[in-house]
Amino acid sequence: MKKENPNAINRRQFLTRASVLSAAVVLPRYVMGCKALAAPGDQITLGFIGTGKQAMGLQDSFLKTGEVRILAAADVYEAKLHRFTEKLPGCDMYSDFRRILDRKDINAVVIATPDHWHAAIAVMAAKAGKDIYCEKPLSLTIKEGRAMVKAAREHKRVFQTGSMQRSWAEFRQAVELVRNGYIGEIKTVRVNVGPPPIPYNLPQEPMPAGLNWDMWLGPNVKPQVFNHNLAPGLTDDFWAHWRDYREFGGGGMTDWGAHMFDIAQWGLDMDGSGPVLITPPDKDHKFLTYRYANGITMTHEPEGNQGVTFVGTKGDIHVVRGKLETNPGSLLNQTIGDNEKHVYRSDDHYKDFLQAIRKRTKPVADVEIGHRTATVCNLGNIAYELNRPLKWDPAKEVFLDDDEANKLTGREMKKEWNVL
Q1: Domains of the chain: residue spans and CATH
Q2: Which candidate among 65, 144, 157, 336 keeps its CA 20 to 30 Å from the CA of 195?
């Protein structure tokens, strides 16, 4: 019998305390236990921090690689934690993620919490010597993203951002067509994602059993009332709406923007930089418009399906999940030659992370890339909030001659979790 970890939550407590339990399921062979497919020495050990809807998908994706054992999980919502571990006999459960960071037998952590927690957890994980997979958007603010990069570099951590479109063929093909000049000189990029966030305004609801709301709020200084739209229960079949509110997320600009602006940055070869001018809609600009130092513009256009369109002097390329459209149409099946420009190739975002851990190399969506993409999204949100053009220095990561805008590159955080 396995010796119980004294810091772990007892499974029997969940059976009596959780208000909703998942139905029994038939498990595929690869999830029939943490040690099913390979000897422990051949596998990478993971701890999950955050066990909601996104984490359930990530659990499946990592287990399908056959290269990991999930030894522990942490969440502030007991029912979700129990659901997550039902498929993982022998995995420990914690209400405090720091207990995972304390464990020497865990190689890496998967962070799938709301955005306002990302930076604090990631910085602490890096200091604890853990490699990190963190969901997109990487950070709630620009300064928090830079703190994550600094911690990863200082502690020599492998850090993969959950921008999995970089491991999908249609997006890589679009980027390589652009990089190799198949549509000529790029003039503009159109990005179709949702709107900026709004201040939190939901009414208070009764607190569900087994939810530590103070810990859910975590780094946020200002208290906020509970509403199930922020932290859905197991029977709520929707994605949590914390993404819509400024205190916790960045709206559609960062939620889908962290995917689509990421592809735009990749295509423009701007993974280590960003725009220099951000102009919100006005009489001369129908849409919020970014301008890069090389003169290329990029617009945020909330209408239409989530996607990216590169417009060049010889044609255009439109890419969404599962579909690539080109003008001229002959480019659709264009083979990129061996002597042409190629970007990092990853066919599996999760195996790519595990390979980088073993080789101690940068993965396809390294922390710097994730930070720069999140920065583009956050720059747009700041311009929307202040409603005036903003000049940005992507090297120094400051607004030029604008103290009010620079204050919005960070936020006040509780002392215990402050990484700024």
Answers
A1: 11-165 (3.40.50.720), 166-196+253-417 (3.30.360.10)
A2: 144
